[in-house]
Amino acid sequence: MESMIWAEKYRPKDFAGIVGQQEIVKRAMAFVEKGNMPHLLLAGPPGVGKTTLALVIAKKLYGDSWRSNVLELNASSERGIDVIRSTVKDFARTKSIGNAPFKICILDEADSLTREAQQAMRRTMESYSATCRFILLANYSSKLIEPIQSRCAVFRFKPLSSEQLIKIIDSISSSENITIDSKGKNAIIEVSEGDCRKLENVMQSCAVLTNNVTDETVYSIASAARPKEIKEVIALALANKFVEARSKLLDTMLSHGLAGLDIIRQIQREILDLQLDNSKKMALINACGEIEFRMSEGSDEFIQLEALLSQFALAGEKS
User: Fold this and answer.
1) Tens-digit pLDDT profile for residues 282-308
2) What's the confidence (pLDDT) of residue 108?
3) Cα 62 from Cα 159, distance rounded (Å)
4) Strand segments (E) across the chain
5) Residue 152 · residue 38 · CB < 8 Å
6) Residues with Cβ < 8 Å from 149, sequence gap 6 or more?
7) For residues 182 and 160, what is the distance between their CA atoms, to the nearest angstrom?
8) 21-156: which CATH architecture?
9) DSSP class of residue 85?
10) How far, in Å, CA of 233 to CA of 180, rounded?
11) In this structure, are residues 39 and 134 in contact, taking their beta carbons and an 8 Å threshold?
């Protein structure tokens, strides 16, 4: 097993390697062919190719000299107004090197910028559009102020489907001589939640332990509870065995090192498969949302999980 990071090793080198975003790739290729483009806003969940697309655009436009004409910043660590007024503005106001018509500023996690920084950036984008184009990457485009969104052509990425993730798993396992059974593939897809970057990290961690990856290996590496364990907890609660359900839930959390928010999401996914009326399923999902909100506000997670189990026990009793 090579020691290099897989996320970099398997990063697509051209547009054809970007999976599951055909319409976006088609529009990006049109910009590259014309040698010009507006400011871009790439929005969507993590691990679906936003940063890769931005780098591929830069490399296709500038060739080997792309590093001289591209500034790449991560707004989550450099999110204040001073960075926009100094680093970004100084880069944007200077002419490009060589025959490039403009330079590119790639601002990753732009939705982490403070409100004041966004106000400063809107003016910079407008004033220096002749010498610099911005590519903003964001998980939540709604966190960007409207004036910035209106200045950009918006590309909305969608999560990768299970079929597309399986193709990536098969490609990597073939290159690295790893054997993964069907249950193992499903487990990788479940824990990665459509995030290709997370998928590669989980696969690399599993491959360090064994070349024959199973679902047991995946769940132990990813520190996630097996669906079977979550179903057992829910079944005990619905059977009005509250104390047993509580003990099983705590044992599952401690054995896998899970936080309350992690277990809530897994419980919510299993609710849809329960043999209950739709009205009871909706009530339980609503309870999950309420408990997750309480946890995010700082409530004790064990007390809140007990409260959730009590909701399941009451739903089972009514059934």
Assistant:
1) 888 999 999 999 988 888 888 998 899
2) 87
3) 29
4) 39-43, 70-74, 103-108, 132-138, 152-156, 179-180, 212-213
5) yes
6) 41, 141
7) 18
8) 3-Layer(aba) Sandwich (3.40)
9) I
10) 28
11) yes
Does residue 114 contact residue 80 with C-beta atoms inside 8 Å? yes
| DSSP 8-state symbol, 161 | P
Q: Give the tokens for residue 98.
A: 């060589």
Residue with tokens 């329960």: 274
How much is the pLDDT for 3? 42
Q: Which two tokens stand for residue 40?
A: 């871009």
Q: Are strands 103-108 and 132-138 parallel, antiparallel or unpaired?
A: parallel
Question: Which of 3.30.43.10, 3.40.50.1820, 3.40.50.720, 1.10.8.60 is the CATH number of 162-222?
Answer: 1.10.8.60
Write down the residue that tokens 């296709």 correspond to.
60
pLDDT tens digits, 198-224? 888 888 888 888 888 888 888 878 777
How far is the first Cα of the chain from the last one, in angstroms, to the nearest whole number?
53
The segments of the chain whose pLDDT lies below 70 read 1-17, 75-80, 318-319
Residue entry with tokens 């309480």: 294
* CA torsion through residues 204, 206, 212, 213, sign: negative
Q: Whats the size of the chain, residue-wise? A: 319
